[in-house]
């Protein structure tokens, strides 16, 4: 795993360190899946404050950390904001079709349950 060199640089796994079981674990939580769905449709990185999750701030921070540490998202500081982007290129290269399948299944489930 790449290590943080200062408090403003966050550690992320390299592409080679990303493991399928860790990605699936990160995507298994409804709040984390919600974040990934929003990032997948965003045209640019989104700040943590963009997301209005129905959990505490500390729980939100935990969810972002799980996504980052398992290689699903990349987080960088831009000024004082922590920006989030989906690591689509890495995930598609390692697990072709996985992300699109999960996103399609999540959208279908949201429609079926009336969650939009």
Automatic annotation (TrEMBL):
SUPFAM superfamilies linked to this entry: Winged helix' DNA-binding domain
Residues of the HTH arsR-type domain: 12-106
PROSITE patterns, per the entry: HTH_ARSR_2 (PS50987)
InterPro entries per record: ArsR-like_HTH, HTH_ArsR_DNA-bd_dom, WH-like_DNA-bd_sf, WH_DNA-bd_sf
Designated name of the protein: ArsR/SmtB family transcription factor
Species of origin: Streptomyces maoxianensis
């Amino acid at each position: 795993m790449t290590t943080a060199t200062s408090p403003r640089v966050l550690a992320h796994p390299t592409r080679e360190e990303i493991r399928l079981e860790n990605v699936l674990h990160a995507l298994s939580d409804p709040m984390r899946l919600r974040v990934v769905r929003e990032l997948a449709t965003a045209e640019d990185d989104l700040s943590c404050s963009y997301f209005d999750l129905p959990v505490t701030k500390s729980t939100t921070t935990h969810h972002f950390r799980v996504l980052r540490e398992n290689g699903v998202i990349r987080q960088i500081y831009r000024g004082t904001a922590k920006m989030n982007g989906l690591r689509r290129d890495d995930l598609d290269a390692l697990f072709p079709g996985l992300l699109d399948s999960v996103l399609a299944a999540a959208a279908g489930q949201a429609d079926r349950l009336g969650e939009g």
